[in-house]
Amino acid sequence: MTIKLLAIGKTDNKQLQQLIDDYTKRLGFYIGFDLEIIPDLKKVKNLSEDQQKQKEGDLILGKLKPTDVLILLDENGKQFDSVGFSNYLQKHMNSGAKQIVFVIGGPYGFSPEVYAKAQGKISLSKMTFSHQMVRLFVIEQLYRGCTILRNEPYHHK
């Protein structure tokens, strides 16, 4: 199984990008992982929120394979602790899924078509984080989940 993280827009903070790169490298020792950036939409001032969600949704759906398991990072999603998230990953690994795709949407969320295609929604917190920070948090939790699944030392155990 492989994991892909799709995100809208580039990370312009160099220090944050270094941390993302570090955890991406660490995660790669455990599982096939790919971070794919979908470029920001152009001329969004001329688009309504719904139009922007629709265009971003079309780009997201265009990146998926029919067999992908789509999980959205969404404020209304299920929350996990790290062990619970590792169990969630294990469940998908055991299901025979070839690829899980986690998606961080744009500033207004996802289009109805993306929600309809999704097999799950996860919330990292009730707090609001920048989309750039969420990338780091997701990759770090994927890494932590893999270390937990390998029974490596975990600071709460």
UniProtKB/TrEMBL annotation:
Places the protein is found: Cytoplasm
Entry annotated with the keyword Cytoplasm: yes
Keyword flag Translocase: no
Record-linked Pfam families: SPOUT_MTase
One Gene Ontology cellular component annotation held by this UniProt entry: cytoplasm
InterPro entries cross-referenced by the UniProt entry: Alpha/beta_knot_MTases, RlmH-like, tRNA_m1G_MTases_N
Molecular function per GO: rRNA (pseudouridine-N3-)-methyltransferase activity
Catalytic activity: pseudouridine(1915) in 23S rRNA + S-adenosyl-L-methionine = N(3)-methylpseudouridine(1915) in 23S rRNA + S-adenosyl-L-homocysteine + H(+)
Binding site for S-adenosyl-L-methionine: 73, 105, 124-129
Enzyme Commission number: 2.1.1.177
First-level EC class: transferase
Alphabetical UniProt keywords: Cytoplasm, Methyltransferase, rRNA processing, S-adenosyl-L-methionine, Transferase
PANTHER family: METHYLTRANSFERASE, RIBOSOMAL RNA LARGE SUBUNIT METHYLTRANSFERASE H
Subunit structure, interactors included: Homodimer.
Protein family according to the UniProt entry: Belongs to the RNA methyltransferase RlmH family.
Family matches, as NCBIfam families: PRK00103.2-4 (NF000990)
Function, in words: Specifically methylates the pseudouridine at position 1915 (m3Psi1915) in 23S rRNA.
Protein name: Ribosomal RNA large subunit methyltransferase H
